[in-house]
Amino acid sequence: MDFKDTPEEAAFRAEVRAWIDANAPKHLLEELKNASFASNGVVSEDPIAAGKAWQKKKAEAGWACLHWPKEYGGGARTPIERVIWGQEEGPYAALTGVFTIGHGMCGPTVMSWASEEHKRKLLPPLASGETVWCQLFSEPASGSDLAGLRTRAVKAEDGSGDWIINGQKIWTSGAQYSDWGLLITRTNPDVPKHKGLTMFFLDMKSPGVEVRPIKQANGQSSFNEVYFTDVRIPDSQRLGEVGQGWEVSLTTLMNERLSIGSGMSTGFPELFRFCMEAEIDGEPAVKDSGVRSKLAQFAVKQSGLKYTGMRAISALSKGEIPGPENSIGKLVAGATMQELSMFALDLQGEAGVLWNEESPQQGRFQAMLMRSPATRIEGGSDEILRNIIGERVLGLPGDIRVDKDVPFKDIPTSGRKKK
Amino acid sequence: MNLDFSDEQKQLREQVRRFLSENCTSDTVRAILEGPESYDKKLYQGLAELGVLGAAIPEEYGGVGLGHLELCVVAEELGRVLAPVPVSSSIYLTAEFLMLAGSEKQKETWLPKLAAGEAIGAFAYAEGQGRMSLAKIKATVSGGKLKGTKSPVADGDVADIAVVAAKNEKGQVSLYLVDLSGPGVSRETLESIDPTRSQARLSFDGAQAELLGAEGSGWHIASQVLDRAAVLMAFEQVGGADRSLEIARDYALERMAFGRPIGSFQAIKHILADMYVSATLARSNCYYGTWALNSGAAEFPVAAATARVSATTAFQHCAKNNIQVHGGMGFTWAFDCHLYYRRSNALAVALGSLSTWESQLIERMSAGNAETAA
Questions:
Q1: Residue ranges for chain B with pLDDT beneath 50
Q2: More confident residue, A259 or A297
Q3: Under an 8 A CB cutoff, do B3 and A389 touch?
Q4: B245: which chain A residues are within 8 Å (Cβ-Cβ)?
């Protein structure tokens, strides 16, 4: 048992470190360390442009999309090399957060389902950061129950073979600056919900696409609604067969959960620092036994996630496939962050209500409090994640699905009884 | 990076698990729960013969000379089956005290016997109600004679020797090795929530006490040994947590209600998922703890407290929810759920209670190791 690199890993790490040291935009480092939920932290220049510049530099040196094959602009590196890259890139990774969905989810889906011609056309500019992709899946009436989506795609009546799209998507990160979108639609409402779906990719500049920012509960706007009014998509931009959209979407969602050893933040180091400084009756808060009990429970969650990630990395290092342990990451981190932020406000006493220049650590805990409800919902809600652990890890039976064999158009849309 | 046990250590696990599946069934545990014996002698002897008691004891003192990683593997397996044997008192504590602070003669005399299961050791430091602290120790040693009462002492009713914390003539807390078969010792088995691990009151009235380690270094030595034992016990707790989860999962697959297996209801599924989460966090923290123990890392005190807090929390969480998943059947004497519930709550207060370890973890982190948890 040790935390050491193998000689090959150490050599790779040295190579990565040297390259990053020589090439990273060091003038942005301080801003990046203050990255928050809404942005990569860059304020002194255009954050998107800064992200694109860093990605381009990486791509030119062969450090872009390490998990992709070379012919599509990737680095064709092993999973452990990818982990080492991530550790060394550190705060600079926040710069290229704008590409996370494209590189991690849309790209792999295109790779699995698009024609060779499309792959060669679309993937290299995505890898090098020239294009940004977004994922158009969730809808106002279908979140966890994604297959209940209602955005319609119908064949154009002009015989062109094109598809005409009408409907609405929601919670689309980055739609406002995306070039391409991965879009799942309903093409047949007369069959059960999973069977009538079809996947497309579309040019976000197409006529009839309208992006509107959502004003979130915390006052920020990092997500969008996307409206489609008679948007035309050529049939050549269909991924998979007509009616095969659910299967295609699973490729995307599987990739969403593949990020390994990424170590989601819980906010614990910040809370600990705060408790070293804050006072209770003239003594540091960290000396109070009640505070200690709370802190200890947060500490073991933070540390448990960290070492769970390291166990996964250990498996990768040996060329093994990591176990299912990493599926606990977001479930633990999201709930911990929320509880922890409430505790930090509690320690601030009556002044915990304030979210201004007086608030400790630039109001970090107030921001966490107001953002953490979303962490527990986005990318699989706590409840969906518990179902996944229950069913895929523990082998429990799935829930009974009453709409499984019902044509989509006959599924009830309201829980209220009709008058 | 390799935060995992080696193939040899995994083979050892298989070997111990096979042995325990034949020699430590639910009936074995229940015989101690319901019968007059304080531990299973045959099982203990079998473990000695298998070499696992001496796993971390050097060969020159009759051990196998492996290390603490191997002993952690063994501990997890013992925890899974609730083995009713005094391994923690005799091996995690007494043998560790001897290895850390014993004189050559003390080591030569006792370690081979502990490794062979021929003698049992116990650690006697608590003196009645309340969290343990230096100020609470009233037992005294004067002219090599020990006076005072220790309670509860885990496995104190069956131990041959005890490591006793007492004040010397200058009022400094020191450790003493006491042969419990000698004069001036009386003992009494105490009733507890978990009779599968016995508890006793030891009363000393002029018992012969031999200094263990330097005068006045009692608390210093004890805290180091308690850290080691905490990691080992945390592995027992992780074993118990995992097994509680497995039992609950199996029952949820088998038990039908409202025409379907109860495990298909999200109310049950989510309880089980949360049990998996706490057991997984605890396991990862235990790997951190045993890495630090085995490598002698400077952050070991933080790692030990981390493993201990996480494992105590997980075992209590899993054992209580195992009963909940079973419904009424989980509250019957016939089902094993209460055996795990008893053990989880007994281990939670052994070696210092959860809140004590929580406090120590944060104290240690604030003393300069904060970055280790970042």
A1: 369-370, 372-374
A2: A297
A3: no
A4: 394
B272, B288, B374: residue with CB nearest A269: B374
Cα(B214)–Cα(A137) distance, integer angstroms: 69
CATH 2.40.110.10 is right for the domain spanning A133-244: yes
Nearest-Cα residue of chain B relative to residue A295: B362
Nearest to B282 by CA among A317, A328, A391, A3: A328
The interface residues of chain A toward chain B in range 272-311, judged by CB-CB distance below 8 A, are: 272-273, 276, 284, 286, 289, 291-293, 295-297, 299-308, 310-311
Q: Which CATH superfamily hosts domain B7-87? A: Acyl-CoA dehydrogenase/oxidase, N-terminal domain (1.10.540.10)
Task: Encode pLDDT of B210-257 as tens digits.
Answer: 999 999 999 999 999 999 999 999 999 999 999 999 999 999 999 999
CATH superfamily of B219-373: Butyryl-CoA Dehydrogenase, subunit A, domain 3 (1.20.140.10)
User: By three-state DSSP, how is residue A51 classified?
Assistant: helix
Question: Does position A261 have pLDDT exceeding 60, yes or no?
Answer: no
B-chain CB neighbours of A313 within 8 Å are: 1, 3
Residue A199 CB coordination number (10 Å): 28
Q: Which CATH architecture has domain A268-380?
A: Up-down Bundle (1.20)
ipTM of the complex: 0.95
CA pair distance A399, A391, nearest whole angstrom: 9
Q: In one letter, which amino acid is A73?
A: G
Q: Which residues from A are below 8 Å from B284, CB to CB? A: 303-308, 310-311, 325
Grouping H, G, I as helix, E, B as strand and the rest as coil, residue A265 is coil
| Contact residues, chain A, for B281 at CB < 8 Å | 300-301, 304-305, 308, 328, 332
Q: In this structure, what token pair is assigned to residue A90? A: 């550190």
For domain B121-216, say whether CATH 2.40.110.10 is its number.
yes
- Domain ranges within chain A, ordered by starting residue: 7-127, 133-244, 268-380
Instruction: Annotate B112-135 with DSSP letters as a single string.
Output: HHHHTTSS-EEEE--BSSS---GG
A7-127: CATH class: mainly alpha
